[in-house]
Amino acid sequence: MSPGPTPPPADRRRGWGLDIALVLWPSFLAACGASLLFFAAVDPVLLRDAGPQLFAGLERDAGYALGFAFFWAIGAVASALTVYLIRTARVDEGRTAPPGAS
Amino acid sequence: MNATKLTPLPTPELPGGFYVAAEKIYPREVQGRFARLRQVAVVLLLGLFYGVAWLQWDGHQALLFDLPARKFHIFSLTLWPQDFLYLALLLIIAALSLFFFTALGGRLWCGYACPQTVWTELFVWIEQWTEGTRSQRMKLDRAPWSAHKLLRKGSKQILWLALAAYTGFTFVGYFTPIRALGSAMAALSLGAWPTFWIFLYSLATYGNAGFLREQVCKYMCPYARFQSAMFDNDTLIISYDEARGEPRGARPRGTVARSRGLGDCIACTMCVQVCPTGIDIRRGLQYECIACGACIDACDDVMDKMGSARGLIRYTTENAMHGRRTRILRPRMLVYATLLTAVSTALVYLLIVRTPLILDVIRDRNALYREAHGDRIENAYTLKIINLDDKPHDYRLAASGMNELELVLPTGLIAVPPGSVNTIAARLEAPRELAGGVHRITLTLAAEDAPRIAVRETTRFIGPSP
Q: Which CATH number do you get for residue B431?
């Protein structure tokens, strides 16, 4: 069915593409939930009116977007740490060894 | 599973082990009961999605989650951020329904209702219309670029992009009034944020339904991974009847399979070719199976042609497959059903008794009481009146709980525009001889034009110690 040579059986523990997807996708889902809960309780213009100077001139829809980006970024940091800790852990069966261990 | 020996597939195995994702899947077109059912679902669900956005109700968009104004219009109901409870209950009901229907009928959601499936189906229709059947599409992909290929591929992309753009526009139209959005777009005066969101959702539609397709189900969807937790041996699943089908093998039409020591499976691989996620259902239940039923339709068709009974691949339960009785009423179902009924009843009840009015009473903290002229004692309060209705109302306030209590307001009736807060100062007065001690006071606020809209709050009236 597929023309050309069969690609070599790749180890899916390697590859940046999957790592990036594993960082961005779950954090995106978490950011959706967090935004829903947070903005149900907090009106973004409150941040402008009662918050620090940082939010001066913030419009409501810009506030939603900013909040979503913030939650996404926080989630991405958590996901990235999780992926990093899994990738760098010493695992039996010699599947992944910590750097310099072999 | 049982010990029937499986003959190796004559179809090309998906190469590359873990990198199945790189292999493009060309689902074969299929006709039959389940294909028709999905067509009905696609037309119905997408019809609702594209249609309801334009529906008007009482002078406003019938379904509008107006984030810029922070209020949700759901037909005649208007919900404010204070009404978050209803949304939370609705989400719980959605989750419980998913559990209930998964335990009962397997992945009905995946096969017929999930937006991923529904839009992918629509995109595949376009693909079939512009690029032809499975074999034509595979041939086209292998062929060198030519005017013909450019025309086929180009028209597919144009139709996909147009559909994706309209989907993005409709989606944003549920959050920003769609008619205003449409005219702003026609006048090329669309704001930066709506433009950004329309672009983003168009891209998501195009990417998910055009390119990612089954990879969303296989690699991105959390439900696909945990749905098996709702499964038991009485859950409807799509299953290949191994006992009947094996050993599989090709044979001329009209052969009595058993006379050659064969089962009913003729190893035509139709079930594999039609599968949108590219699995072989004959290997048993796999989490990639979205229960779309395409393999059932394909196999039934083959069985008809071979003169065998239908149902070599069929909707069945693990128990039925092994000759045991299938129970619908089982503890799991009862628990899901009870929870679902309880939460739904609570939501309906709360919506019925919901009063679109909030009264906040704050006692003046500066003084316990004041002595007014005429040997009277007065207490001061700040009232916050929030009109959650989508109409303006005039409210009348009354106080009770003490003899000869008098309520003093700046105006007789308190007018509050829809969705607004009116903060007013109020005083309560009583003669000194009756005012001693602490009294419990009830304040009743009711709309003049709609007595049903009424709330009651309690506060305290404090006088000099007797």
A: 2.60.40.10
